[in-house]
Amino acid sequence: MSAEGRREFIRLLVGWSVCSVRQLGQDESITYGAELECYSIAVPDSGAPDGCKVYYTDTMVMGAERLFGRHCRCFKATATKPAEKVTEDNPFKHDVIIKDSWTEFGTAPDTPEAGSGSESAGDGLGDEQQQVGGMARDIPQTSPATAWPTEEELANVDSFDPGLLRSEVTLLRKIGDALEQHEELDGLYPRLEAGGWVRQGRGDNPVLDSTREMIGGLSDEQQRVTPFCLHVRYAMTPIGKPLCEVESVPELIIVLFDVMRCYMAINNECGVLHRDISENNIMIVRPIGGHIHGLLIDFDCALDTSVEGRAVRPEQIGTLPFMSVANIEELQIERTALDDWESLLYLVCWL
Questions:
Q1: In 201-338, which ranges are E strands?
Q2: pLDDT at 296 over 70
Q3: Among 190, 216, 230, which residue's Cα sits nearest to residue 100?
């Protein structure tokens, strides 16, 4: 290791030594109950007496895979508190999926000097791919064009311009409201039970969980090159299973038909473009005593095309090997539903 490398390593260790517990990644809204051998998770809910609805879980579907900090995690959970210790003979009856992730705050630069320094910077919220277990996985990246939001702006986080926040929970609320009368689509897309921005700390003034809480204050120049994220958590139904668990080609056809029928309704009636049709984002649901059906999930990459100008600033986003040609080659043309249909064709070939 070079002298400069040793210096940077020592600086890293010193930085960790002076970090607060919260900056090192402790999440005060998730606690473990030894008496019941399960976790309780506080999910923001404006209708609850204290602003949160508590769920209980003993099963993590997906966990954070990076060194430290809080990243995207998913849990199978229930709102019913166990009456006694959870065991093999007294298992959980999971009925919701809780997704715990970070939403990026960004801008939509129109000039080369804003964002990444290129006219094709788009809205500055691109994705980079990392190979994990042989499959490509999305790693959100961002190049903010401006300094982080102010304390006053964060105090009114629910009124943020949807063009500045890629918020899955906001899109799911919009989709749920628009498709509420379409009973034939029930179960084909995630329905929110509760969700919102996570606040850490107890007492009368909990702190909105954000990049600022994790790494502290930075100069304006540092802020321009450091992604600013807000912590969001939400509970959804139904619980799906991986697409690989279909038992026949007819079942696969049913699932894909259901998902794309739902996709077109979301696109046409909600103005939401999914932009990540892939093997991991199509699930199957096999109700007891019912027929198998599909479930379209993960609207992290989705775009609200009703926001002026968003659809005409294309970005490379999605999951290899299912990205459309225009997407993977970063062609400067508007992304449409045809790109997602192209992804579906690649998925069929992949399967």
A1: 207-208, 228-237, 241-242, 272-273, 282-285, 293-296, 303-304
A2: yes
A3: 230
Which residue type, as a one-letter code, is found at position 234? Y
Residues 6+ apart with CB under 8 A from 118: 112
* Contact predicate 100/74, CB 8 Å: yes
Element (H, E) at 326: helix 325-328
Strand 52-62 and strand 207-208: the pairing is unpaired
Q: Is the dihedral of CA 89, 59, 133, 99 positive or negative?
A: positive
The model's pTM is 0.80
* Rounded to 5°, angle at Cα 64 from 204 and 81: 55
Q: Bridge partners of 137?
A: 130
Pick 213 or 294 by higher pLDDT.
294
Mean pLDDT of the 177-194 span? 95
Residues 6+ apart with CB under 8 A from 215: 23, 226
Q: Say yes or no to pLDDT of 46 above 50.
A: yes
Residues near 251 by beta carbon (within 8 Å), at least 6 away in sequence: 284, 292
Copy the structure tokens of residue 294. Answer: 């599909």
Residue 71's pLDDT is 73
Q: What DSSP assignment string belongs to 131-145?
A: EETTEEEEEE----S
Q: Are strands 52-62 and 135-140 parallel, antiparallel or unpaired?
A: unpaired
Share of the chain above pLDDT 90, in %: 45
pLDDT, greater one: 69 or 19: 19
Q: Cα dist. 29→66, 120, 173, 307 in Å? A: 20, 39, 23, 33
| Residue position matching structure tokens 């320094």 | 117
pLDDT score recorded for residue 139? 41
Of 224, 222, 220, residue with least CA distance to 114: 224
